[in-house]
Amino acid sequence: MEKARILIVDDEEAARVGLSEIVTAWGYETRTAGDGLEAMEVAADFYPTAVITDVLMPRLNGFGLLARIHEEYPSTAVILLTGQGSIEDAVRAVKEEGAFYYFEKPINTRQLNMVLQRAIEQASTRHENTLLRRRLEDYGVFGKLVGDSHAMRQIYTVIEQVASSAVSVLITGESGTGKEVVAQTIHQLSPRATRPFVGINCSAIPESLMESELFGHERGAFTGAISRREGCFELANSGTLFLDEIAEMPVMLQAKLLRVLEERKVRKLGSPKESPVDVRVLAATNKDPVEAVRRGELREDLLYRLNVIHIKLPPLRERREDIPLLIEHMVRELSERHQRPARIVSPEVLETFARHSWPGNVRELRNVIEHAIVVCEGQRIEKQHLPSQMYDGRVFRNEDSISLPIPISLEEAERQLILKTLIRTSNNKTRAADLLQISLKTLHNKLKAYREENEE
After folding, report:
1. Buried b vs exposed e over 310-335: b needs ≥16 C-beta within 10 Å?
2. Which residues lie across from 169 on neighbouring strands?
3. Are residues 160 and 303 in the same domain?
4. Does residue 357 sit in the same domain as residue 274?
5. In a domain, 290, yes or no
6. Shared domain check, 199 and 90
7. CB under 8 Å to 281, separation ≥6 — which residues?
8. What is the DSSP string of 173-202?
9. Distance between CA atoms of 133 and 156, rounded to whole angstroms?
């Protein structure tokens, strides 16, 4: 990983050399300057991550340097070193002019080390924001999110606003709209970007194992617990935890989750003590959260705790103007990944895409393009390269249908429909439940009953 670059500015040679040696020992790359004007000359080649500057200097003092740095290097954090006579001005510089911090001389080096770490994290976040904004202007790409529509630009704005904070965010939208990608982008733009990002799908873990998965367990905590295991909160400590399909979490466990979020402490199964955790929680659901509360699937108090900021992703059918940009981005990425020659899409394919309703949203579009790229032998993707569900713009073709003998019981017909739908979605139970218009819990119960019947 590239070292952070620290520019140290002081007109007293002994002070700047001594501080430079200390900061270098912390693992940073350093340069020094004797005043503000020299510092700007050094910065032109050095491009500092952070500047530590004395306030009282000839030619250009620390406050003047602060203004120049913010104008020419907006991502760079500035830390001021001040004597007794200029403390009031330094406080104002922090509150009103964007200085990151100020220290009164003599400096507490231990405290400076901690502040410098935070300053570097903030500077890196600002720099990443600048790069992402530039990519958005040039290509319509924001992190891993693609789209230039008004709806997506509004979402990008909210992501930028909340990324630097530690507030909880609830992300809603249909399956396949990119909820986890939004969570990853928030993490990428946050001061926690270099720390762990841990994601867990609450609908994919059996209820009996969910508590252990979240909070961890000690050896012997239950039958089969042969060793100590860290839970997701511990794994994500100092980073971000993404709880996907939060409305599928058992309600009793939601109460324990709420307690952890409120007290910022976690207790492993089988442990007598709690351990502090520093985790930012992002959550997502493909359900209307208010309706989920009404149906008793989501605790109201947990919703209030998670829904500090709400980001609602639009389905692809409501932002069709983004489809050409998504296609271009996906074709380029997937062709490189699979080392295939496909580079462009024919007008007939674009017309087919424009007519399609995209019930699986961006995920479905990606799967369709990936299929076409793999089977296409040339540079141009034609209609015959598309998978069967794109025929005449319908979701299913005849081979995706089921034939049922008469007579047949309603229960058996339902079983065949459920199993066929799971095959169609490659065993994606969340997607299958959406297509069948039943809850994920109902689908799990049906499959459990089928397994028990087979065992009998």
Report:
1. ebbbbbbeebeebbebbbbbbbeebb
2. 282, 309
3. yes
4. no
5. yes
6. no
7. 168, 240, 241, 242, 243, 261, 306
8. -STTS-HHHHHHHHHHHSTTTTS-EEEEET
9. 9
Tens digit of each residue's pLDDT (9 = 90 or more) over 388-430: 766 544 443 334 456 666 677 788 788 878 887 877 776 778 8
Single-letter residue type at 360: G
Q: What is the pLDDT of residue 178?
A: 93
Are 281 and 196 members of one domain?
A: yes
Tell me which residue has tokens 């630097």.
164
Inter-axis angle of helices 109-139 and 150-163, to 10 degrees? Answer: 180
Distance CA 386, CA 374 (A): 10
Whole-structure pTM value? 0.61
Could you say which DSSP state residue 221 is in? S
Q: Which residues contact 54 (CB under 8 A, 6 or more apart)?
A: 9, 10, 11, 12, 15, 62, 81, 82
CATH of the domain at 172: 3.40.50.300
CB 235 within 8 A of CB 198: yes
Domain C-terminal end among 78, 97, 128:
128
Which one has a higher pLDDT value, 410 or 294?
294
pLDDT in tens, 111-156: 889 889 888 877 776 666 665 555 555 556 677 888 888 899 899 8
